Amino acid sequence: MRHFDPTPLYRATVGFDRIADLMDRVMNTDVTQQTYPPYNIEKTDENAYRISIAVAGFSPDELNVEVRENALVVSARKPEDAEEGRTFLHRGIATRAFERRFALADHVKVTGATHVDGMLHIELAREVPEALKPRRIEIAKGSPARQTTKAVEGKAREAA
Asked: Does residue 129 have a cis peptide bond before it, meaning omega lies within 30 degrees of 0?
């Protein structure tokens, strides 16, 4: 696989350092993608998202959801004594420990998490500060500076 060098992006853009770093990190990650547990990411509104993770066999106490450095980290671990005294003839429900990371964009906040019917739903909202929202700049109507100066001089002569 080719190595992607984001250096030209740094020369042609301003303020997109995180995007270039993210692209570099994605290109350099191991080819084997983690598939457990399965999850969905859906857009529920213009500025709202939901991540749904299938966590069958885990209770809410065994799940951990936290935000660290623009990353959402979801992990789960069963207590070691949970399987004592049980004999499985077939084990199709995987309850192995996991840690899944999701990179969060700037201004995306986790607003809540619920555990319903073996699914962990994490609600996200994009909250762009007022200072970063687009705003219209009014353009004043007037004459160029030279014409204004000549008009003022002309009025001064008429007054004299």
From this structure: no
| pLDDT on residue 7 | 65
Return phi, psi of residue 90, to 5°: -145, 135
Q: Give the tokens for residue 30.
A: 């191991």
Structure tokens at 11: 């020369």
Question: Residue 136 — pLDDT band, cuts 50, 70, 90?
Answer: confident
CA 136 to each of CA 47, 131, 133, 139, 140: distance values in angstroms, whole numbers, following the listed order: 21, 12, 10, 9, 13
**In whole angstroms, how far apart are CA 61 and each of 24, 127, 150?**
36, 29, 79
pTM of the model: 0.65
Residues 28 and 44 in one domain: no
Q: Do the domain assignments include residue 159?
A: no
* Distance separating alpha carbons of residues 6 and 141, to the nearest angstrom: 44
Burial class (CB in 10 A: 0-12, 13-18, 19+), 149: exposed
User: What residue numbers bound the domain in which 47 lies?
Assistant: 35-130
Of 24, 27, 29, nearest to 101 by C-alpha is: 29
Is the residue at 29 inside a domain? yes
Residues 40 and 104 in one domain: yes
CATH of the domain at 40: 2.60.40.790
